[in-house]
Write a structure and sequence with these properties.
Elements lengths: L3 H12 L4 H8 L3 H8 L7 H11 L3 H6 L7 H8 L4 H4 L18 E4 L4 H7 L3 H5 L3 E2 L10 E5 L13 E6 L10 E7 L3 E10 H4 L1 E5 L8 E4 L3 E11 L10 H23 L1
Parallel strand pairs: 1-3
Antiparallel strand pairs: 1-2, 3-4, 4-9, 5-6, 5-9, 6-7, 7-8
Helix pairs in contact: 2-3
């Protein structure tokens, strides 16, 4: 057995701020037995492995095969909340991408007509390789970007048909409140919204439109498959005046909140 298991159970215990006494009592074993497992002095039996699997809500395969200390905060959170690839029977997903002749990451384009296909094939390198691609030389080369065509008017002043470029977000817990993101969900496919991060409190994201005609709604993090943080957009329909699209968007978002606050006061 790969004794990554020993470091994993010690890591999980400390991550949950529990003592050996607390864990051993919960598992119905002697403290010395647990200490032996954590320090690679003793080999756990199959029943013992099952006890640890149930206690930490992770599969035996995960506990003995994956070094949990190498995972990101988001990956650990997903494991601890039931998104264990071994328990679910899925596969570890590596972001499918393409590169140019100099090995620089391309920016793939996902037009409106390709959205349905992207929802089904976002993890498939063959599908991603068939998407149009280009480069934006002013963007940092050490990050991954993708461009999506938006539909509808929920994010005005960014107009329908605009091309929105996002930076791939690996650690969803790193999202701060009020960031514009392209979010890929199982039920709704690709949506472009302002995101409020409630992962730590209740495992959800609150998705908010700039257009006040659209009500905010919550999505469970288990429904989310990709998040791309807004970088810029391109459109034939540009806002008038000298104010940037980003500034207009932020202003509308603030106005929208002010209107809601005023309405709330009027109801009192």
């Amino acid at each position: 057995m790969d004794m990554v298991f020993a470091s994993n159970i010690k890591f999980l215990r400390k991550r949950k701020n529990r003592t050996q006494d607390e864990v051993s009592e919960a598992l119905g074993m002697k403290r010395s037995t647990l200490s032996g497992y954590e320090n690679e002095v003793a080999m756990p039996s199959v029943p013992a492995l099952i006890l640890f699997s149930k206690y930490y809500n992770m599969s035996v395969d995960t506990l003995i095969k994956i070094d949990l200390q190498t995972l990101t905060g988001h990956q650990l959170y997903m494991l601890e909340h039931g998104e264990d690839v071994f328990l679910k029977g899925g596969k570890l997903r590596v972001l499918a991408t393409t590169v140019d002749s100099t090995n620089r990451e391309n920016i793939e384009l996902v037009p409106e007509k390709a959205k349905a296909g992207y929802t089904r094939g976002f993890f498939d390198p063959e599908y991603i390789s068939e998407l149009p691609r280009y480069q934006l030389p002013f963007l940092p080369a050490d990050r991954k970007y993708r461009t999506f065509q938006v539909s509808g008017d929920s994010m005005l002043p960014i107009p329908e048909g605009a091309w929105v470029t996002g930076e791939f977000v690996q650690d969803w817990l790193s999202l701060s409140g009020g960031e514009a993101c392209i979010v890929l969900t199982l039920d709704e496919g690709i949506v472009f919204k302002i995101v409020e991060n409630h992962i730590k409190t209740d495992g959800t994201l609150k998705l908010i439109s700039l257009n006040p005609l659209y009500e905010p709604y919550l999505v469970n993090i288990s429904e989310v498959r990709e998040i791309w943080r807004f970088v810029n957009y391109t459109s034939n329909e540009m806002p008038s005046g000298n104010v940037s699209g980003e500034m207009i968007g932020r202003t509308l978002f603030n106005i929208r909140d002010d209107i809601r606050e005023i309405k709330g006061r009027l109801k009192i």
